[in-house]
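Proteins fold reproducibly. Look at a sample protein:
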Amino acid sequence: MSKPPLWRTFLAFLLPMMLSNILQALFGTINNIYLGQMIGVEALAAVSVFFPVMFFLIAFVMGLSSGATVLVGQAFGAGQVDKVKAVAGTTLTVALLLASGIALFGLLFTRELLVALATPADILDAATSYARTMMVTMPLTFAFILASSMLRGVGDTLTPLFALSISTVIGLVVTPALIRGWLGLPHLGVASAAWASAVSSLLTLVWLNLYLWRRRHALAFDGAFLRAMRPDGRLLRTVLRLGIPAALGMVVMSLAELVLLGLVNGFGSNATAAYGAVNQVLSYVQFPALSIAIAVSIFGAQAIGRGEASQIGAIVGTGLKMNLVLTGGLAALGYLFSRTLMGFFITDPAVLELAQGLLHIVLWSSVLFGMSTVFSGAMRAGGTVWMPLLISALAIALVEIPSAILLSRLIGIEGVWAAYPITFCTMFLLQMGYYMLVWRKQTVERLI
C-alpha cells in the first residue's frame, strides 16, 4: 500500500497536539478570566508578573525534553524500545532533581525575586502568594511536561490530549471553588489558580500512569522504566548536549522577557495587565507554530532513525506550508475578534483599548516566528543545536532588547511590542539562510 501524503500525516499528528496545547493554555486562560472577573484587574496583573519568571524556570526542563525527544524519536524510528525507556528515565530523574531545587528557592526567596523585578507595590503581596505556590509545586509541572514530550517523541499525540482534557476539567472546577471558598474549601485569592494547577497536575499524572501501564505503552512507568531512572552517564551527556542549547535559548528568551516586563511595569499596573492579556491571546496564535516545529523535529528524528534522512527536505516544506495556513489563519481571526478576545480578560475600558492596540502590533509576526522554528526544528532533529541557538540569541540580544528600550522611550508602551515583529523577522531570515546555505548540504547521522 502507498503511504498517505505527508500533509495528512502531519495533520494526524498535529491536530491532537494542537488541541493538547490549547487545553494546556486554556487552563491558564480560564484561571486568568476567573481572577480578572471574580477578583479584579489587580489579580490579573499579579499573575502576569510571574509569566516570564515561570518561562525562565521551566526553560531547562523544556531544553531537556527537547534533547530527549530527539533521541526518543531516533530510537523509536529504529525500533529500539529499551533505549526509549533509558532516555526517558534518565531525563526524568535529572528534571525532578532540578524541580526540587526550584521549589526550595521559591519557598525562601519568592518575594525578593519579585521585588527585584520592580513589581508594582499594589500587587506585590498577591503576586508573591501566586508565584510561591507555582514554584513549590514545580516538580509536578516538570513531570507533566516531560511525560507529554516523551509521548510525542514516540508518535503518540492522543494520550497527552486525553491527559490534558482531564487536567482542564479539574481546573475548571477547582479554581473558582478556591476563589469563593465553595464546598468548605479555604479562600485562597490569587493563589487559587496556582493550587488548582497543582491539584490537576497531580491527579492527571496518577491517571496517566495507570493508563499507560494498562496499555503496556513503551513509556509506561513499570519496573523497566524505574530501573532506567538510574541516570545513564553516556545517555545523559547526549541529552544534555542536545538539550542545553535549547534550554539556553529559552533562558535567553525568558531573560529578554524579564527585561521587557521591567519596561512594561514602568508604565504601571494597567500596562502590566494588558501585557498579560495580550500574551494569553498571542500564545494561542503561536500554538500551531510551536506544534509544527515539534512535529518537524520528531518526524525528522524518526526519519533519521530509519535511515531516511533524505525525507527532511519534504518535512520542512510541509511544515512551512502548514504554518502559513494554520498560524496565519489564527492570526487573521485574532485581528477580526481582537476586542472580544481582550474583553475576556479585561473589564476596564481604558486597559481594554490599550491591550487591543498592542495585540494589533504583534499578532501578524507570529507567522514569521513559526517559520523560523520550522528551520531550527529540522536542524535540531539531526543534532545541530548550537547554530540555531546562536542565531536566536543574537537576534534577541542585538535586536529585540535594544529595539524595545529605544522604541519605548520614543513612542511609549507600544514600542515594547513593536520590538517583537522586528525580532521575529530577523530570526526567520537568519535561520532560513543557515538551513538553506549550510545545513542541508551536510551529512546527517543517527545519534543513538
Q: What stands out?
A: The chain has one domain: 6-441. The chain has 17 helices and no strands. The longest helix spans residues 269-305.
